[in-house]
Amino acid sequence: MKYWNGLEEYDGNRIAVMLGKFDGLHFGHRTLLRKMQEHADGLEKVILAFDFPNAGAGRELYTREEQVYACAQSGLDGYLNVTFDDTIRTMPAEVFLEEILFKRLKASQVYVGEEFRFGFERKGDVSMLRAFCEENRISCYAVPELLHEGIKVSSSDIRTLIAAGRMAEAAELGGAFFVHGITRKGRQLGRTMNFPTLNLYPPVEKLLPPAGVYLSDTLYEGTVYPSVTNIGVNPTVKDDARVSIETHLLSYPESGIAYGAEITVYFGEQTRPERRFASVEELFAQIAKDAENARNRKKPIYI
Q1: Residue 194: helix, strand or coil by DSSP?
Q2: What torsion do the CA atoms of 20, 66, 302, 256 make, to the nearest 10 degrees?
Q3: Exposure of 258 by Cβ count < 10 A (0-12 exposed, 13-18 middle, 19+ buried)?
Q4: 22 with 15: CB under 8 angstroms?
Q5: Residues contacting 191, CB < 8 A, separation 6+
Q6: CA 61 distance to own-chain centroid
Q7: Of residues 135, 103, 109, the one with CA closest to residue 38
Q8: Spatial separation of the C-alpha atoms in residues 241 and 208, rounded to whole Å
Q9: Is the dihedral of CA 90, 93, 99, 101 positive or negative?
Q10: CB count, 10 Å around CB of 287?
């Protein structure tokens, strides 16, 4: 998938474009994506995602890299990242349509949610967008907001659920929460006890559920492996506060998984909170129980 970091890098032509603030792809976004896939035959499918700088750490549902990954997995052809800076924030709605959508992006089709607003002081709405598109022979598709049990599906609600550890409820709105990254070398204690782990170290701005052990599925090179995952600082064997994600696969590929591999860990329910054990032996006895519990689960997490 193509990636452009800013309008100045963009070099596409004749595209179908989704517009909005995309924090991952929840089910509302995916409804919009399905509409694009139905109608954008012969066009490159591109997402223009407004990147709102987040001053607070620990609140990003998905990092920029994870959002790009999710979009690539969903069949999009391009990702255009546009920082919502003062230039974009103060741009009149009419200028955005003429200079960005028409002249810069050369959009043939536009896809938005019915509540989409744009331009200075959010004066642009779907009615204005439709009128502009009709005048310029651009197809415009606006999808009504997605409701779950009568409530609008939003990334902010999903973030609240994840922060509270309510993983099943979050998954009903946005699919299974995941962490995507490159495996790094840890202390390798697990290997000595026949419980090797794949270790990820998420950035500080990444939102994570409460520390503890979770049922999980791990995607590696197109294959899903049932797994059990710990989020936290592993207080029994570590003396620093760096948060790590340590995943033990219930079965491994014959060739193994080397350090530096790209994996995605999808989280189910927490089975226990993280705690300090009296010894390493006691820790690994509990890990064995955690793994057995994971083997007995009833349904997959990654779907």
Answers
A1: coil
A2: 160
A3: exposed
A4: no
A5: none
A6: 7
A7: 109
A8: 15
A9: positive
A10: 21
Q: In whole angstroms, what is the distance from residue 47 CA to residue 269 CA?
A: 31
In the chain, DSSP assigns E strands to: 2-5, 15-20, 44-51, 78-83, 107-113, 139-143, 147-148, 151-152, 178-182, 198-200, 212-220, 223-232, 244-249, 262-273
CA distance 216 to 227: 5
H helix intervals, the chain: 27-39, 64-73, 86-89, 93-95, 126-135, 155-163, 167-174, 189-192, 280-295
209 has a pLDDT exceeding 60: yes
Residue 302 CA, chain-centre distance (Å), reads 13
Instruction: Give Cα 267 to chain centroid, integer Å.
Output: 12
Q: How far apart are CA 144 and CA 244, in angstroms?
A: 39
Q: What is the mean pLDDT of residues 80-108?
A: 95
Stretch among 129-138, 159-168, 290-299 having the lowest mean pLDDT: 290-299
Which of 33, 9, 21, 12 lies closest to 107 in space, CA to CA?
12
Q: Are 102 and 129 in contact (CB under 8 A)?
A: no
- Return the structure tokens found at 76: 């999009």
Distance of CA 92 to the CA centre of its chain: 30
- Using CA atoms, how far apart are residues 140 and 84, in angstroms rounded to an integer? 23
The answer to whether the CB of 235 falls within 8 A of the CB of 176 is no
- For 180-205, what is each residue's pLDDT tens digit? 999 997 665 555 556 788 999 999 88
3-state secondary structure of 198: strand
Contact partners, residue 166, CB within 8 Å, separation at least 6: none
Angle made by CA atoms 34, 264, 72, in degrees to the nearest 5: 35
Average pLDDT, rounded, for the chain: 89
Q: Which of 186, 194, 197 is nearest to 225 (CA)?
A: 197
